[in-house]
Amino acid sequence: MKIGIIGAGMIGSTVGKLWVDAGHEVRFASRHTEELKPLVAKLGERASAGTPSEAARFGEVVMLTVPLMAVPALARDLAPSLAGKIVLDTGNAYEKRDGAAAAEASRHPHGSAGWAAAMFPGARWVKAFNSVYFKTLETEAHRGGDQVGIPLASDDHAAMDVAAQLVRDAGFDPVPVASLARGKEFEPGTKPYNTGMGGAELRRTLG
Prior knowledge:
Elements: E1 2-6, H1 10-21, E2 25-29, H2 37-43, E3 47-50, H3 52-58, E4 61-64, H4 71-82, E5 86-89, H5 95-98, H6 100-107, H7 111-117, E6 124-127, H8 134-140, E7 149-154, H9 157-170, E8 173-178, H10 199-206
Helix pairs in contact: 1-8, 3-4, 6-7
């Protein structure tokens, strides 16, 4: 599968590497494309770098992993390119970092993912990979036994099925919950957030 990753920071680069290792083609994007050259060179021929617009066009699935405050500007540039595509949203609202955008997103009835999704009409939105620290993703992928659980929330069941398979490909246990609004249950300040709990415990926690 072709995957675009917009925002190749800690989460984007870590999960992107796992997907490349699983055989997917991944195009990483950031505002400073030249800074991605060492990452792409390390990952080999299935990895490439480009602009956010190029990654949006490239990906059958696109991971959006940028600070919340950057989402409105990205939406103005990329919303048409992402219409009809599955978008994995790793965003969280951090007031100290994101300011007014965090407050606005937190007030949204469907949480920060609902706030972001509203700016991308037609995109098939899935909240994913927002609740686990990147170091845990880096060191615990494909572990034996009870794998680290990755909660997923979406209003699009088919999109969530694709996201769940990508979670498995990365070496984790997908834990889908119906409706995007339930993404609020694994945002900062909730019991599952940043604990690295296994899939079995996460299912009990999220019901």
